[in-house]
């Protein structure tokens, strides 16, 4: 290739440069990973010193002074030579810390830094996601309250059904987000530290370091676990923490993806009906060929990313199932992609959801027109009851309504006309006893049941307690850069 190589000459993961947030892409960056490795070596040295191993203050201070100044070029050369990423970084850290070099990684195995760092990154990834999910809940909850009284057609089988309200439908979306917040919070709380366990999880090397002192080995594990910000470590593990942990983490993220896909699919369908529209910027182009189009690109993008996110747990499941005995290394390359891409995809989905929730537009007149087209059929039972109260026979009234409904249905389906059932009822002498009641019987507000009350009850009892956990973290709007 002619000319100098640039970033545009190589594949870049769109999740990192196009869709993911700065905080989530940093969470899975080399800087986060390798500076965490160095901090873990520091924690280990501090704990070993505290428990009596001959480690000096000078060695500790030297390590502290070089936690962030990583020579990546040197590390790459070392790894190319020895084919071992952890030892390459041990050597690179040792070059920066010649006094501390003899005690760096003392008694540890590669998974001490590798797996413990992964657990820190998973924990921090959840910490990034949870407030974002709460903001999505908040935005759609506000929308639900604003639209709690707006009657709209309900749909079952994607066919018009009894009326609901725009706000009540939004509560269905919020309910699933609440379930995701709960599941991800639980997965976050369940995370433990691998801790200081040695090559096959037996802590044999540390028992040797401390000359058989079982309590000191246990204390070492507890000290490092606390320094890393965890309250517990896994009491037993092989060389790695069980890959079932990855399964649990990716499953809850995939479930969040299913929620995002459902919400955005609903919005796409409603946009097709011109009832609800996602944010559409003044200069946004909907189609290169059709200038009039207002495509729901945010919702479409969210569905695309969610579909990818939902596919990723299969990697974790297969990896967990094939970890022979204490571990095999066929998990490594897979996890480099599946863990990061799951969190980055989830992060992208909730970013889009928040943006959509902050700018949803409702078109009441379109909704009212659609309601008017279907409501006469749905009002049949109300009209029958009114006729019975006026002295009519239910069976006779049912037949009269059936005949008029069939004729009105033909008018809609075969002639392409409007639903004229109401006009037919008003013109029928049979229904003259209730002609003065027809408009009242067709008031959409009388067909929505307890939907507005359900919205308020749901927001108060289910939503507000969850959002209270995120007080002070719900502000800020999302602006998409692309």
Task: Please outline what is shown here.
The chain is mainly α and 482 residues long.
What do you see in this structure?
This protein has 482 residues and is mainly α. The chain folds into 3 domains: 26-103, Fumarase C, Chain B, domain 1; 110-280 and 294-362, Fumarase C, Chain A, domain 2 (Up-down Bundle); 380-441, Ribonucleotide Reductase Protein R1, domain 1 (Orthogonal Bundle), CATH 1.10.40. Helix content is 62%, strand content 4%. The chain has helices at 14-19, 22-27, 30-50, 57-65, 72-82, 85-96, 110-146, 166-190, 204-209, 214-227, 244-272, 297-311, 313-321, 332-357, 364-378, 380-389, 394-413, 421-427, 438-441, 451-467; strands spanning 151-156, 159-165, 276-277, 361-362. Strands 1-2 form a two-stranded antiparallel sheet. The protein has a two-stranded antiparallel ribbon with strand order 3-4. A hairpin with a 2-residue loop joins strand 1 and strand 2. Helix 11 (244-272) packs antiparallel against helix 13 and helix 11 packs parallel to helix 14 (332-357). Mean pLDDT is 91; it is low at 282-292.
